[in-house]
Amino acid sequence: MASDAARETLEFQDVHGSLLVFGPGSVRALADALPPGSRRVFLVSDDTVMGLHGPRVRAALRGLEVVPLAFRAGEASKTRATLARIQDRMSARGVDRGCVVVALGGGVVSDLAGLAAATLLRGLVLVNVPTTLVGAVDAAIGGKNGVDTPRGKNLLGTFHWPRAVIVDFDLLATLPPDQWRAGLAEVLKHGVVSEPGLLDDVEAAARALARGRLPGPDLLRRAAMVKARVVAKDPYERGLRRILNFGHTVGHAIESATGYAVGHGAAVATGMVVESRIACRVTGLGASEASRILQIVRALGLPAEPPCGFEQALLYVRNDKKSLHGAIRMSLPRAIGEMDDAGGDHAVPVPPSVIEACWNER
Ligand code: GLY
User: Fold this and answer.
1) CB of 299 closer than 6 angstroms to any ligand 1 atom
2) The overall pTM is greater than 0.90
């Protein structure tokens, strides 16, 4: 249990009944976030993160039975086969509705562990402990989970809100610089969709990273709160939540088309560049605003141009979850900080010819 002194340094937010806890050392409050009387915890992680942070989490859960379940790190693991292995191992160890799933890791871990928690016995309590910037500001918050299929990314999944999300700044300190850059792409996205001031901060963070200094907790907390505010208003993505998908129609297609050789942050960065060109044609984004997004992506050292041809990616663009009745739809800005609401749908139809032209624009 966290001491009173430790708890005083933490910040707590209620997001649609899910407790968001920020602060250095907040993982020590993990046991407090479980339902009273919890006894068995399935600690799901990848093999890298389990080695790095598993002992600290287990120490925080002293007195409970902790069953560690680790899979090979990387997006290639985010499959139905890995999900089935996790589910089967939980069943073999004995699972009942008093068991809790703790997801320790980045987006791949929270997606897999979340889907296992959502499906085992029709739903176990889930607690997310993100260890990447992408996880802390995006993936761990808001209850989405999923696995990839041959037809595209995250095509099987549910909404299963975590009971708590514990964002411990200390766990992020070991992240390599490329993971910070990948996470800053999502922070940039949060700035474009609703908080323009974050763009200056991402630029400053890019300069600091180039000098070997890590972004501070304030940036991380502000970016996470953008996500928290949006998902609290639209927990099951009926409309508004789609704004968080800016850059993702193209980004997910790049990931799928390259067999996940391109990581999520890099793909979303390229996706934002291409989708901001599309927004210039479709929703009236200014050319100077699209250029600002491009400059920040470059300042982060992330790729601005797609690594594959449009024809390789088109199938995956079409399979995006926002597509409707055969139309490709994207969530696009009208200006930095203002997304087009498309009559409440927050997804604008875009003809393939426009996507192709912007994909190939240099
Ligand atoms: N990552 C976008 C969402 O959770 O809606």
Assistant:
1) no
2) yes
